């Protein structure tokens, strides 16, 4: 056998060896699973649980805008609906036939729906969304469907059904809601791996936007909160993740030292708002004398300020340091076709409007089919009675003979009908009572048929102009239910409030110049000024260095501080005059400079950097004005003139990094500004 043949044989045998190894690995894996049967049980547990929470608990469906628990509550209310109020405990118990998660989740979901005052008509103490007070127990409060829900949410003819969790009952897969309910109600839920937060929108504006969309026009849609307030939607991002909505409370000035909060931000209660105000007051960020909560059906929080306070500055501080301004992050997520989708509120409205249009079309088609069926049977009945066809069956002895005889009697008139006459039609004719035949009125029968024909023509027109019919439907909803649902949240654009501009200088700041520390806690040292924790200070040291730091309990600013004061970023008005010696025996320089931008806590050198440099003179001029200085040299120097004047106003103002102009090469003893009497 040749070498080539041997190589070919070896090559052919390799797959058999590999396949044997694969089979062995699979066999070992099966054997391992057989020894540990729980291993196979946990393979997909996480995905199954995550899918269940997303689809069946936390995220609403697009078609009806409801979570499963909300849908089951509405279905139960419909089954119990007789026009009267039902105990919420009874509704919760009835809903448990469909919802497997217990009464607590059903009760809390129902209270939330009732407080939004759209789908459920409530009676009793359902809590207060302004104060955060909870609803009474389920046995003490009552509920029924609202007229809006009866008209918009239900239609058994267009509802698709499924078995309940235990197979004993049927429940709707989705309710045929003919309104963008999800945008009106809003929704919030946390699932596994994703979250949903859709903010509520205004009822009338949703209808207007739907009409604009159906007519092919552009629209804008922004949230509207039940608690009112003022909102900035410039970063709303159409409700998608990454967007931000700023919501502020509404203040009213009652007197010089008293203000009232009339509307609170979304997501807050008067209790949580007051707690945030008291917390800011205790931390020294704001100053208040007294706060009272007089909220009932409308929010009213009275804040009394101490004498000397400025109301406008206090309001800005309340926005900055308390929950009087909150940031809300939307994250629109819906379920469609058993899959979560992240889409904006504009797209939600478009799809919802298309869904409403499709439901209206389906209802019109069902109505037309029913009208055609009614017209068909009314016509058959009229022919059957007027032509006395019922007499032809008097001598028939079998049921088949009866059916055949009636068919034969109707044959001459079948061309007048719009469809074939079936055995079911004939059976219905035989069920007509003698009393109806004896009192049959041909004129009334013709009028009824004409009325049906008129309704059929109207239904066909609506089907041909479906968009017009859908817009008219939305406008009728607005006319019926839009009163009292005007926008409550005002839309505005907010300017950024800087903490340093509104912080109250409530603490005394001290400085130890020799050791180089400043802070609020150095109460045994020199009092510098009053400052807040947001103020920044600039400190110059005798070696020609300086730094900027924020006020705190204790901060090191550099040893031997010769000047320290409050500093503001971007300050170009304050001009600093400086005379310094370069090194231990170098010449002395003079310069004028500004400090408008620095890195906080970084040390900067104003000299040329030589070791032993020293500042002879430093003066800060907040108004930019300067005055001449008197320079006195050391007595031992060789200069003929030991004292001279220098006008700093002749120098050009430069940056802090400039070395300056040479003032003198001789050693300086002192340098001071002119006294007022010397000017």
TrEMBL record:
Topo IIA-type catalytic domain sequence ranges: 59-477
Region entry Disordered, spans: 1-29
Entry's family note: Belongs to the type II topoisomerase GyrA/ParC subunit family.
Matches recorded under PROSITE patterns: TOPO_IIA
Composition skew (Acidic residues), residue ranges: 1-19
Species, as recorded: Pelagicoccus albus
GO cellular component, one term: DNA topoisomerase type II (double strand cut, ATP-hydrolyzing) complex
Protein name in UniProt: DNA gyrase/topoisomerase IV subunit A
Enzyme active site: 140 (o-(5'-phospho-dna)-tyrosine intermediate)
Superkingdom in the source lineage: Bacteria
Pfam families, per the entry: DNA_topoisoIV (PF00521)
InterPro entries, per the entry: Topo_IIA-like_dom_sf, Topo_IIA_A/C_ab, Topo_IIA_A_a_sf, Topo_IIA_dom_A, Type_II_DNA_Topoisomerases
UniProt-listed GO biological process terms: DNA topological change
Catalyses which reaction(s): ATP-dependent breakage, passage and rejoining of double-stranded DNA
GO molecular function: ATP binding; DNA binding; DNA topoisomerase type II (double strand cut, ATP-hydrolyzing) activity
